[in-house]
Amino acid sequence: MGTVRNARVNQGGPKCAGIVGLGLIGGSFARGYAQAGVRVLAWDPDDDVMTAASMGTVAGELNDETLGECDIIVLACYPEACIEWLEAHAQALADATDTEAIMGPVVIDTVGVKGIVCERAFELAREHGFYFVGAHPMAGTQYSGYAHSRADLFQGAPLVLVPPAVDDALKLELLGQVREMVRPLGFGKFSVTSAAEHDRVIAFTSQLAHVVSNAYVKSPTAQVHHGFSAGSYRDLTRVAHLNPQMWSELMIDDADALAFEIDHLIESLGAYSRALKERDQRYLENLLAEGDRIKRALDDEASH
Q1: What are residue 23's phi and psi, to 5 degrees?
Q2: pLDDT band, very low/low/confident/very high, at 130 (cuts 50, 70, 90)
Q3: Over the chain, what is the mean pLDDT?
Q4: Which of 63, 201, 274, 286 stands 20 to 30 A from 139 (CA)?
């Protein structure tokens, strides 16, 4: 596979973007691109969503005949759906990619786990001859669906990239092209990692937070919290409201890493519980001080 050098992209960003899936993330990609003057082609299984998106955002349907018009194609759907779409359209992507002329659309995904998607996507790209880079925009809300998408969702947000195992020159070219093609969306920091490292860390930073929040509201005391709760309750319960189908698929795909984090948290919580049951204030104070110290160190590291 040659280096990607799509002339349309190199002249100031993408002229046409394809979006598969118009939920919160895909819809925000579509709105952001459209607001920046980029032509958007899209596909979503929900006809009502397609109708809504066609009113000022989506210019046409993304299919085998039109995907060659795109400089970038964004797969913004569940892990298995991303893989199925790539398998169904791999030949069309290859037909739209000229490795001799070093031109063609670059495909990225937005899935919250990278291992299962990247493994199959890299395999398909290698076998058929098209370009794929794993991606995870670190932005979102507790809500889902096109109705909650917005053009500025990614302003200043980090974007994690997982490149294929290719030579360094091609890898740098691919990463540079993806950065250029998402530039209209206003992403902030870019980081590059492997699929395995991404999934190990994201189990802690994202998935565990959703599990804790979701489990926290199952306390019977939650039924009488009104009038007794403020910022702490609001912050801890924000992501208890989630899409069960999507999150269960993401968590199962990252089961080992997430189970490890949950077990470690249970062990830590057990120490607090023992201190309370034994009325050991000094031990409890030490536990609280340790957590405070770790948090301060993490914040200090992030500020430098």
Answers
A1: -85, -150
A2: very high
A3: 93
A4: 63
Question: Could you tell me which of 37, 3, 33, 1 has the C-alpha nearest to residue 18?
Answer: 33
**Residue-wise pLDDT tens digits, 184-217:** 999 999 999 999 999 999 999 999 999 999 999 9
C-alpha of 186 from chain center: 15
Give the residue numbers spanning the domain of 234.
198-302
Boundary of a domain, candidates 193, 212, 227? 193
91 and 26 both lie in a single domain: yes
Give yes or no for a contact between 171 and 151, defined as CB atoms under 8 angstroms apart: no
Distance of alpha carbon 6 from the chain centroid = 25
241-to-109, 215, 238, 261 alpha-carbon distances in Å: 24, 11, 7, 21
**Do the domain assignments include residue 260?**
yes
Whole-prediction pTM value?
A: 0.88
Domain count, the chain: 2
Write down which residue in 167, 193, 219 finishes a domain. Answer: 193
Looking at the fold, whether 98 and 36 belong to one and the same domain comes out as: yes
Judge whether 110 and 137 are in contact, CB under 8 Å: yes
Query: The domain that contains 278 carries what CATH number?
Result: 1.10.3660.10
Residue 12: its pLDDT value, please?
Answer: 62
